[in-house]
Amino acid sequence: MNKAYQELCELNKEIALLGSAAATLGWDQETYLPAKSLKFRAEQLSYLSGKIHGLSTDDNFEAKLRAAEESGAANSTEAANIREWRHHFNKSTKLPQELVERNSKTTSHAKAAWAEAREKNEFSIFAPHLQDLINLANEKAELWGYDDEPYDALLGSYERGAKTADVAKIFNEFEPKVTELAKQAVAKSASGKPRKLEGDFPIEKQQILNQEVAASIGFNFDAGRIDTTTHPFCTTLGPQDVRLTTRYYAHDFTASLFGVMHETGHGLYEQGLPDDDYGFPSGSAVSLGIHESQSLLWEAHVGRSRGFWNKWFPRAQELFPQMQDWSVEEFLQTINQAKYSQIRVDADEATYDLHILLRFGLERKILNGDIDVADIPAAWSEKFQSMFGMKPKSNTKGCLQDIHWSMGGLGYFPTYTLGNLNASQLFNAATQDAAVKTSFDNADYAPLLDWMRTNIHAHGSTYLPQDLMMKASGENTNPEYHLAHLKRRFID
Amino acid sequence: MNKAYQELCELNKEIALLGSAAATLGWDQETYLPAKSLKFRAEQLSYLSGKIHGLSTDDNFEAKLRAAEESGAANSTEAANIREWRHHFNKSTKLPQELVERNSKTTSHAKAAWAEAREKNEFSIFAPHLQDLINLANEKAELWGYDDEPYDALLGSYERGAKTADVAKIFNEFEPKVTELAKQAVAKSASGKPRKLEGDFPIEKQQILNQEVAASIGFNFDAGRIDTTTHPFCTTLGPQDVRLTTRYYAHDFTASLFGVMHETGHGLYEQGLPDDDYGFPSGSAVSLGIHESQSLLWEAHVGRSRGFWNKWFPRAQELFPQMQDWSVEEFLQTINQAKYSQIRVDADEATYDLHILLRFGLERKILNGDIDVADIPAAWSEKFQSMFGMKPKSNTKGCLQDIHWSMGGLGYFPTYTLGNLNASQLFNAATQDAAVKTSFDNADYAPLLDWMRTNIHAHGSTYLPQDLMMKASGENTNPEYHLAHLKRRFID
Fold it and tell me: pLDDT tens digit string along B183-237?
């Protein structure tokens, strides 16, 4: 390691220390902060993020970065870190302060307007703000630069290196097949008349089951924990400190359990990143589409599988006596139902991607100016009808349902479906190994986790997402594996 | 407010933001931090405290401080802030970096040696480290400066403006009287044969009672909370964010309750400081001796009083059915027993100060070189015998029992007894007001809290502790009020 690279590392360590302090304050805000201290917490976080932004974008950073680039990297990890630091430096410094502040003001107003519009089912309240956000997104895209279309720049903020045309190609191949498959799955589920959960599932018992499951699939509770919040999340506060959260419903223990398995998937990825590279690209998750592949792997491929419940159903019956007259088969049928829903976050595995494909298509048109803001509700409705065979009941249950746009998150949605596709593809690749497959069937997930540790987690951000997919599975993201998975689960 | 003062305020606001972030990390470390992330947490805290130290001691701080001093203060609050900032700046900058680092290394070794010495009951393991700590304390005292004796400089670190001779005068007057009073109290308690608590007190029920009591005496749970830790404490993370902790014993609900009332007393003081001056001397508690007066006021004067239990005992009986055949009288006798104990932290109100008086006398001799380290066990034993009528059972239960010296905390102990004396004196002053007294007798503590808000909390550190006592109670700390309180509680 040469001196220039080392100095760049020291500066980035300082930034990571400040970032981890801010992350801790953020976690506390969601879990334990007393109501009246929200305002001061915002002041603390704004101070820290100002410091972090300053250190990562000032002349000193650039000088150290340039020196490291000129001295050259001693190995591929150093090269990847320099590459990623340059990428983020350019991205952060291309937006003038004026725009950053305008962005913050615009989203803050837009969020309030969105909440009101959703409450009142009046798209027109949100429309002018959405127009502002679209203009801003286009401004940012122009400043960041893009190859083919402005959407590239936005998508690339969430999925490093992704290009709209490539994603569109994948999604276009995927869409008709998954739409048809969803239709069949919904019909089959409806005819099966699955049983409903009944009675009360005490929260303490749910916590016991969640904790046992998370530990058994490999979450290290000496380097992490689970708390309760309204909106579940996973956040990393340090190299050995991964905090998950979940929420509980007294009438349905599976909601918190699958929530915990989902966040545990994120947490296993974070716990599997190289500790010594904490805060560096080589010690950080590479993209949302890869992160989501890990959460979905454990929630859907493991958590909703027959082998998993062959092992865990007796334990659930022990904790929840009202489950004692259920068979594993009945339970699997209940947790793996396909059903069209108006609301994305209520959707099951079979229909979830339809929601995303709809949003991706619309966002791309919006950014390219192919559709006016005022026409979004109609376009949403038309596409929804064609995919789901029904109209949205209202704008509140249609184009106003998600918070993402109001936060300026145009370009975020496709990472959910990329996550689904990657999860199935990586699961398929891992289970090509006979030992992984046999263990999986016997509900022993250590070999599966090992495979992910070696092929995904250990690499941090040294490979771009699609290069990582290629290295791990032998090909770029390919929808066939997810289609095959859905067919096995819902149709066969 | 002139420009120079305003700039000094802005700098101190920044320091307060960093300090509050560090406090949050510290709180998390004690409450929820996963075991493996201790090392990284130490790195984060060391980074933040380095930043804070840098900002509060560098040339920029001094220049701004000097400019504010030269411009003059617009009012007494500004004058007090400038006075205190100068005091702390001088104190922090008088120690060279080399000594600060040596201090940190010495205490770190001393803590380990103390733990081993205590474990093995071998004073000789700790002795050389204690000698190092004494040398260091003397070095610091010389650098900080003092009027009469080195102990002044140490005591003054915990009790702003206190002088050893003044404290000694108070304690010398107090000691023979409290020693005699303790003797009578112990004899009287023994003859009363108090009942013992029996059975299990479920922690969830203890939490309910603690929460109700803390809220009813005025703790604002929208600006604070209670969590569980091995060692109870109160810490402030922001102007509206005061975190208390406690621990639970299944066999004794009063331990956590009195613990919570003690920490609530600290918390009420913190919640009563001026929010807008958060992080400034005018918005900060003035000293340990005043802070402890607030915790003891609520724990001892309120929590162990007849009026309090006339109101709360029925609720305790509701929560803990095994208390149903107890009378309030029996319960008061049980919670207000006087009994000599070897261990300071196990001591009751009547005997607690004897432990402190012993330590104060010894510390002063140690610092003045009137006693050798090797002779401490014998000196401890002799004094203990004369005060408690028994010998320490071992050094572990004698001069090795407290962690304070191993942390370099020479000069800290007297603040406990100052707290006791101040609590009784302030309680007496407050209840001179007939409305406060009547409400107190009826277990309505709002007027008592109002009195403390107005006479103590609102002033932050604008007055020195003894000036504050004078302003609030009409005289400096005077042991007569505490003696009268103990006599009423244990003898009459």
Answer: 999 999 999 899 999 999 999 999 999 999 999 999 999 999 999 998 999 999 9
Residues A312 and A460 in one domain: yes
Q: Is the ipTM, as predicted for this complex, more than 0.90?
A: yes
Token pair of A153 as six digits: 């720049």
The residue whose two tokens read 């290295």 is A471
Residue of A nearest to B236 (CA): A37
Q: Are residues B71 and B209 in the same domain?
A: no
Cβ separation B21–A44 shorter than 8 A:
yes
Residue A437 CA from chain centroid, whole number: 26
Q: Do B44 and A224 touch (CB under 8 A)?
A: no
B294, two tokens: 């607030």
CB contact under 8 A, B40 and A220: no
Domain boundary at B93, B125, B153, which?
A: B93
Q: Residue type at A51?
A: K
Are B223 and B80 within one domain? no
* Domain containing residue B476: 203-336+415-491
Q: Is A35 close to B220, i.e. CB distance below 8 A?
A: no
Q: How confident is the model at residue A1 (pLDDT cuts 50, 70, 90)?
A: confident
Q: Which residues are A244's β-sheet partners?
A: A226, A234
Task: Determine the Cα angle at A180 with ends A179 and A181, to 5°.
Answer: 95
CA angle A222/A226/A228 to nearest 5° reads 160
β A241-246/B234-238 pair status: unpaired
A54 CB neighbours in chain B (<8 A) are: none
Q: How far apart are CA A147 and CA A165, in angstroms?
A: 10
Share of chain B above pLDDT 70, in %: 100
Give the CATH number, domain containing residue B436.
1.10.1370.30
Closest chain B residue to A240, measured at CA: B37
Contact yes or no for A223 and B44 at CB 8 A: no
Query: Most A CBs within 10 Å: which of B10, B17, B245, as the mutation test of the A interface?
Result: B17
B64 domain residue, yes or no: yes
Token pair recorded at residue B203: 């922690």
Give Cβ neighbours of residue A354 (< 8 Å, ≥ 6 apart): A178, A179, A182, A347, A387, A388
Residue B228 has phi, psi (to 5 degrees) of -110, 130
Last residue of a domain, one of A93, A119, A154: A93
Select from A34, A43, A238 the Cβ nearest to the Cβ of B37.
A238
Per the CB < 8 A criterion, the answer to whether A316 and A57 are in contact is: no
Cα atoms found within 13 Å of the Cα of residue A441, Cβ hemisphere only: 7
What share of chain A has pLDDT > 90, as a percent? 98
Name the minimum distance, in Å, from the CA of B330 to any CA of chain A: 37
Distance CA B169, CA B167 (A): 5
Kindly give the residue spans of alpha helices, DSSP state H, lying in A305-413: 306-319, 328-335, 349-367, 376-388
Are A201 and A320 in contact by the 8 Å Cβ rule? The answer is yes
Minimum distance, in Å, between the CA of residue A149 and any CA atom of chain B:
42
Both tokens assigned to B73: 């203060």
CA distance A188 to A171: 25
Tokens 């929590």 label which residue? Answer: B303
Active site amino acids of B: 263
- Within a domain: residue B57? yes
Do the domain assignments include residue B448? yes
Whether residue A221 lies inside any domain: the answer is: yes
- Tell me how far apart the alpha carbons of residues A152 and A154 are, in angstroms, rounded to a whole number: 6
Provide residues of B within 8 Å CB-CB of chain A: 14, 17, 20-22, 24-25, 28, 32-37, 39-41, 43-44, 47-48, 220-225, 227, 237-241, 278
d(CA B24, nearest CA chain A) in Å: 7
Number of structural domains, chain B? Answer: 2
User: Phi and psi for A235 in degrees, rounded to 5?
Assistant: -135, 150
User: Please, which residues have CB within 8 angstroms of residue A10's CB and are 6 or more apart in sequence?
Assistant: none
Chain A residues lying within 8 Å of B226, measured CB to CB: none
